[in-house]
């Protein structure tokens, strides 16, 4: 009778836990008072909307500055084309590499909410200094509208301001995006499906900020003043910070867990110490924390790659199992976390050429628009940077079609909850990047032919909308590859490195900007020694069409390497401690990239 009562009690307890799981969120999150979050009043879209608002504001500021930066450097500060392109690439590179530091601090020490708040404040101070550099009489480049020779004090203040914005972006970008994704519980099937759409709609909000940045803000820069545009951006950023703070009661928070790099070093040290030991034939004999002792942590299943690292989890029976030294014995999960990062390296490297193609849109593409006919109806002339809006249009189109049409069709066809794999999505976008460079080369060749036929008028008779196809194509590619990279790095990194995962995605663009500058330097040196440089003092004396063909070739060859790396890639194999299975937990080692 006692045994029957015990079984009834266990069943009732299990049912109670399941009911609690619907009411409360048991994924290690806490609410703003440090308690277990209530599902109905926290997280999901009610919280994400506040987060998307501040992302909209940040992208409005970033693209309002970034797309017109090369124009400002050449027209106001009077840098030549090659120097200005390098300056833009360096700034963009720093801006997208700084998140590696910001993501690390968010995961290890500060937490994501605090990091977003601090970095947004730094961003605001950068905008404020930028405004002062164009408003305060002693800091302005010059007194009139036309600047033949800017004041010497203006240039260092200007660069200090935009690099302060870079510093703010370093903490803002990785922390905010991962903080937004944290609002969805992977253990709840309904929230998990919403989370898959989150990255798509996150980028929709991003594109709205981009669109206004390269149209409204750039128009104000061109037809009113640079100072007025800066004032608008500063006010919008201050307002969005206030809105972000107002959403505090509805957020779900994750505590900082200490340096995520320490467990990786422990695995390496333990594996080297045990390099002479033999691996057990059965992986179940390797050390792992029992599921009953974990606190909602997702354990990773064993994989057969990089077997040397498995030695870190070999149980040494001479040790006291109660007092284990983490530098001598680690768990299978920690070993697999290090394997995840190592397996990401080929994917990271093979997406760099895509980033190089993207870098051209904010530099040479826009500079081409300056030389062309930008008049539309009734002699209204659009700012050259506004053509960049077409990348956002292309991205919105591709994200909307992907989320609303392609994914539902592919879900029914393949049975895969995502529709197609993340790496397949990235690969599709890389095909578009090759196409954009081919189209860019053909259009630039057409522009140069117009210049040669009429050297006095130049390409002013050629409509700027000849550039529309290359902007649209690269925007469509962004909708596949950039969104795919966000989802890939967030999803595949260890749980303790989610902010750093978003930073890794951004670092692809950052490293690509530096490589683009290096490539310009190398090509300039080689072609100059061969007769005539591809990069002249201005566009009409340059051969950008040759440079675009070079990028198309590099990206096409790299795409073949990417396909090989993606096909051999093994996705994360998770085992949740809860009763609900995670979507990506099946088939372990057999779950290949399959591009």
UniProtKB/TrEMBL annotation:
Localization annotation? Membrane
Name of the featured protein:
Protein NRT1/ PTR FAMILY 5.6
* Family recorded in the similarity comment: Belongs to the major facilitator superfamily. Proton-dependent oligopeptide transporter (POT/PTR) (TC 2.A.17) family.
Q: CDD domains from the entry?
A: MFS_NPF5 (cd17417)
InterPro entries given in the database record:
MFS_trans_sf, NRT1/PTR, POT_fam, PTR2_symporter_CS
SUPFAM superfamilies, alphabetically? MFS general substrate transporter (SSF103473)
GO BP: transmembrane transport
Give TM regions.
Answer: 60-77, 112-130, 201-220, 226-246, 340-365, 385-402, 422-443, 463-490, 502-526, 546-565
Q: How does it sit in the membrane?
A: Multi-pass membrane protein
Cross-referenced Gene3D superfamilies, in alphabetical order?
A: MFS general substrate transporter like domains
Q: Which domain of life is it from?
A: Eukaryota
Name the principal localization, coarsely classed.
membrane
Keyword tags: Membrane, Phosphoprotein, Transmembrane, Transmembrane helix
